[in-house]
Known about the structure:
By secondary structure, the chain is α/β, with parallel strands linked by helices.
Amino acid sequence: MTKLAAFSHRFFLVYISMQICIATSYNVVDFGAIPDGKTDSTSAFLKAWTAACNSDDEPTMLIPSGTFLVNSISFNGPCKNQMKLQISGTIVAPNSYKCFLSHQAWIKFHGVPRLLVVGGTIDAKGSNYWSCKTGGKTNCPYGAKSFTLQSCDD
């Protein structure tokens, strides 16, 4: 019986730990993101960020497996607590680099101290832009930065 009791206690602690982690995760899919690589998930990403940024806990914004199309986006702080961005899937830019002509960055974090970005893939579709540049075309845009951290200390 002692082994069963010890197992029960460990199981309970693991279960509670998992619930705490789940309670502080903000999954972009729960905010409307579609992991098909075609549907614009920018609005869902911003909604998840806003909820996580305003959390009283130490939140994790979760991008699960799948491919998420995101247009130019700015994640702004400061947030109530340290932010963690857990990317388990792929964040992908639109095929056309022209959508960045009026923006300085594709993905920008501004004023988010102690930001932690973990895992995944961020695909800015730079090959489309560079094929324009190296193809001898003269009407190629200057280009945008793919991933920018601005005023993000530590």
